[in-house]
Amino acid sequence: MKFLLLLAIVLLLVWLWRSGRRANSSADQPDRPASPPGPQEMVRCAHCGVHLPHGDAVVGRVGLYCSPEHRQLAEP
Ligand SMILES: [Zn+2]
């Protein structure tokens, strides 16, 4: 009978240990560990009207352009 009690205690400890580990691991790893980069801001070329990411736009005096050629055409 002592053996069964000891087995029950060991099983209880293992269950507690595993449930505690699961809680810790879920706390360490959030649902989105590496969030992907968000949507880029899109801008409109002031000359031809094409939409492009703000990072690829060419900055002119009046506005943003899709290429240096369009900036030169719009701002001679
Ligand atoms: Zn353009």
Description:
The chain is of the alpha+beta class. It has a domain at 42-74. Helices cover 45% and strands 13% of the residues. The protein is built from two helices and four strands, in the order αββββα. It has helices spanning 2-28, 68-74, and strands at residues 42-44, 51-53, 58-59, 64-65. It has a two-stranded antiparallel ribbon. It has a two-stranded antiparallel sheet with strand order 3-4. The mean pLDDT is 85. Zinc ion binds at residues 45, 47-48, 50, 65-67, 70.
Sheet-strand content, in percent, reads: 5-15%
Count helical runs. Answer: 2
Instruction: Note the main sheet.
Output: 2 strands, antiparallel
Distance between the termini: 97 Å
List the strand order in the largest sheet: 1-2
Instruction: Briefly note the structural class of the backbone.
Output: alpha+beta
Radius of gyration: 31 Å
Helix content: 40-55%
SSE string:
HEEEEH
Annotation keywords:
single chain; 76 residues; alpha+beta; two-stranded antiparallel ribbon; binds zinc ion
Blueprint (SSEs and pairs):
Elements: H1 2-28, E1 42-44, E2 51-53, E3 58-59, E4 64-65, H2 68-74
Antiparallel strand pairs: 1-2, 3-4
Bound molecules: zinc ion.
